[in-house]
Amino acid sequence: KPLVFSGVQPTGNLHLGNYLGAIRKFVALQDNNDCIYCVVDLHSITAQLVHEDLRGQIRSIAAAFIASGIDPEKHIVFNQSAVPQHAELAWIFNCVARIGWMNRMTQFKDKAGKDRENASLGLLAYPSLMAADILVYRATHVPVGDDQKQHLELTRDIAQKFNIDFMAHIRARGYGVDIVVGEEPIHAYFPPVEPLIGGPAPRVMSLRDGTKKMSKSDPSDLSRINLMDDADTILKKIRKAKTDPDALPSEADGLKGRPEAENLVGIYAALSDRSKDEVLAEFGGQQFSAFKPALADLAVTVLSPITGEMRRLMGDTAHIDAILRKGGERARERAEKTMREVREIIGFLQ
Ligand code: TYM
């Protein structure tokens, strides 16, 4: 079975972008894969060190996973800091990756802003830790939103450089397999990682501006639908969502150059597990005054059971903590297996 890994940061409220770009895909992948889903608490201290209620945030992401339908018995749900092997492998990857690779990351540039000298070293090294998250399990498939694409390319680069730099040691220990990456045959310890980004809403945009990503940090709450929003708030936000004056086209091609229309149709498609063309076959020719209430209804129908279940789970923190603790134990066992080999490959005594 392919091994799937993904993570979500415990910062701020989860929004529809996180749900459609990531969590909904996590749920769908459970049937045919072995899945590991992680609350990446170590990542959440890179941009902001001190959090008022980090424990509560960690629990709420775990609650969102479970409320959305992830089965923590069949798969693994845990928080990153419970498995110190992530940080250990990240340190090794800090010595594999080059500063130039990190400097080129658009997310680093965005988050560090103008005062780059004053960003934390952790923010710069963020993608090393992300590569370690995935590769410490030697996972091969990673469901994420479009904004994580560059980080996953870097993960492939780190794996490739490690494999090449240590190839003789990997072989000497009898680890790894022969694979072809691009054109090049190599003996690899870490597999090449495949991002799973597709679907009708890989990048959910702000409801106020179809050219900006929906994000936790947008100052306008009207720009996003939060997973914890109640039905009235969802209705209001969709009613107020920016649109253009034209009717909907009858095919997805007609959405080009209409970012707000494309975004809302993409959201409808993702929430109903259909393609944009299928949605437009139904709504083509209609005005937003007809489409928006249908979208709002659909959003409430899909999200309100999740919101309700999240609230219920958050009322029983002992239960969530027990799930995370057990998940952490299972994850640690697997991660340690990789780390014993990695330490051998590098030449540490153990
Ligand atoms: P994070 O916590 O910012 O976001 C969690 C997931 O939500 C996706 N996402 C979106 N998808 C579509 N439209 C949007 N507007 C939108 N906003 C966010 C993100 O792409 C992500 O999949 N670095 C990661 C966390 C991470 C990770 C990993 C992911 C750490 N280690 C290993 C995969 C594998 C992050 O900050 O996601």
TrEMBL record:
It comes from Sinorhizobium medicae (strain WSM419). Belongs to the class-I aminoacyl-tRNA synthetase family. Its main location: cytoplasm. PANTHER family: TRYPTOPHAN--TRNA LIGASE, MITOCHONDRIAL. Pfam families: tRNA-synt_1b (PF00579). GO terms for biological process: tryptophanyl-tRNA aminoacylation. ATP binds at residues 9-11, 17-18, 145-147, 204, 213-217. GO terms for molecular function: ATP binding; tryptophan-tRNA ligase activity. Homodimer. It comes from the Bacteria. Catalyzes the attachment of tryptophan to tRNA(Trp). A motif ('KMSKS' region) lies at residues 213-217. A motif ('HIGH' region) lies at residues 10-18. Keywords: Aminoacyl-tRNA synthetase, ATP-binding, Cytoplasm, Ligase, Nucleotide-binding, Protein biosynthesis. One of its GO terms (cellular component) is cytosol. It catalyses: tRNA(Trp) + L-tryptophan + ATP = L-tryptophyl-tRNA(Trp) + AMP + diphosphate + H(+). InterPro entries: aa-tRNA-synth_I_CS, aa-tRNA-synth_Ic, Rossmann-like_a/b/a_fold, Trp-tRNA-ligase, Trp-tRNA-ligase_bac-type, Trp-tRNA_synthetase. This is Tryptophan--tRNA ligase. SUPFAM superfamilies: Nucleotidylyl transferase. The keyword Protein biosynthesis applies.
